[in-house]
Write a structure and sequence with these properties.
Number of helices: 15
CATH architecture: Up-down Bundle
Strand content: under 5%
Distance between the termini: 58 Å
Keywords: Antiport, Ion transport, Membrane, Transmembrane, Transmembrane helix, Transport
GO biological process, one term: monoatomic ion transport
Main location: membrane
Radius of gyration: 21 Å
Shape: globular
Subcellular location: Cell membrane
Structural class: mainly alpha
GO molecular function, one term: antiporter activity
CATH class: Mainly Alpha
């Protein structure tokens, strides 16, 4: 049995890799194919009457580790200099403002049609408002450099802002002056922790000559994240700052302290670390979506009671996106299509306390919105690719 499981897992990873390398050609988001693959494995397992252990508890763990690695992978792609600050500020605002607008708009609809408190409605609405960097960043590989950088910044910031807002709403029964004071204190504390931990980890990476050093760094990063989570600190800020520091250490070499890192030599280590992080992120991301597809029920995908809600939420997502892109004078195509929902949506949905869950926002609705957003992105990227081909044809 164990041999069969190992063979099956190896085949699934290889199929996921095939999906990943062909995504730029087919324009089909890998998330759709991975979900279908997971569901197909379930059908085969049920047909063969194979005994399977309960897999539901693994999903949140995989999702959280995947989120950490994906945000870190994205941060390691972001190069900073003073000329990019306006660009970064714009991407931050375009990550934050739609989250706030969508969260309160969708929460208002939940509150109106469901017998629930507005706070519970808001807890269920936030997962739908967050762009999934796990899908957006890999899908942006087909875009030009500027649009790819924008999607990476925006989706990474969207994950961070979404998690911070979600935790703020779900972890505070009453929101008042004291709550805001505590929130500001948590932000300041994580910034201090990020500064100290980033320097220590960077020094460790630069000075350790043992042949194994990147795996312990990733483990320490995950450890810091989960310990911070215990104390309700927004730990994704640390992940983002750590990745930005590693990728942009050469921008600080004019300062005497940072010369100790020997930026020329350090950049080689960062490149190796970036490659390893990408490999880990791929494995965890693929495993997460395959497992989620495995746990899907056909009745959840084809739930007629939620399809109207799913279409309405999806339309609202892209309407808000188009409006904000216009307000910030950014090109609608192809950016308007780059608003997928995925890992972060699932992860936040699974994190909603049972006492705060509402009937409308169920698993079926989450699945349908994810699939619809992925289909819109797929169609948009295909049309964009066709337009570029036509322009290039003499």
């Amino acid at each position: 049995m164990s041999t069969g499981i190992i063979i099956a897992l190896c085949i699934l990873v290889l199929i996921a890799y095939l999906f990943d390398i062909t995504a730029s050609k087919t324009r089909i988001p890998a998330v759709i194919l991975l979900l279908l693959l997971g569901y197909a494995v379930k059908v085969v397992a049920l047909t063969l009457d194979l005994p399977l252990p309960p897999l539901d508890p693994i999903l949140p763990v995989l999702g959280t580790i995947g989120l950490i690695l994906i945000v870190l992978e994205g941060a390691l792609e972001l190069q900073l200099d003073r000329t990019k600050f306006p660009f970064i500020r714009k991407s931050m605002l375009l990550a934050l403002l739609p989250i706030l607008g969508l969260s309160f708009t969708i929460a208002g609809a939940f509150y109106y049609f469901d017998e629930c408190s507005f706070k519970d409605a808001l807890s269920s609405a936030i997962p739908f408002a967050v762009i999934s960097s796990a899908i957006a960043i890999p899908s942006a590989r087909t875009l030009d450099k500027e649009n790819r950088s924008f999607v990476t910044y925006e989706s990474s910031f969207s994950d961070i802002f979404g998690v911070i807002l979600f935790n703020f709403v779900t972890e505070n029964d009453h929101i008042g002056t004291g709550t805001w004071g505590q929130f500001i204190w948590q932000i300041l504390l994580i910034l201090v922790i990020s500064f100290v931990a980033t320097l220590l980890l960077a020094l460790f990476m630069n000075n350790i000559r043992h042949h194994i050093k990147f795996a312990p760094i990733i483990v320490i990063i995950i450890l810091i994240y989960f310990v911070s989570k215990v104390y309700h600190l927004p730990a994704l800020i640390f992940i983002l700052l750590f990745g930005l520091f590693l990728e942009n250490i050469d921008e600080l070499q004019d300062y005497k302290f940072f010369k100790k890192f020997h930026p020329e030599r350090f950049s080689t280590e960062v490149h190796k670390f970036k490659e390893l992080t990408g490999e880990f992120a791929f494995l965890v991301r693929a495993s997460f979506f395959i497992l989620f597809g495995f746990l899907l029920e056909r009745s959840e995908i084809l739930n007629h009671a939620t399809i109207a809600w799913a279409i309405g939420i999806t339309a609202t997502i892209f309407l808000f996106r188009g409006i904000f892109l216009k307000l910030f004078r950014l090109p609608l195509k192809p950016l308007v299509f780059m608003a997928p929902r995925g890992l972060i949506t699932i992860l936040l949905f699974l994190s909603i306390p049972a006492s705060k869950q509402i009937a409308i926002a169920n698993k079926s609705l989450v699945i349908q919105v994810i699939i619809l957003c992925a289909l819109v992105m797929m169609i948009g990227l295909m049309k964009n690719s066709n337009n570029e081909t036509e322009h290039q044809t003499p």
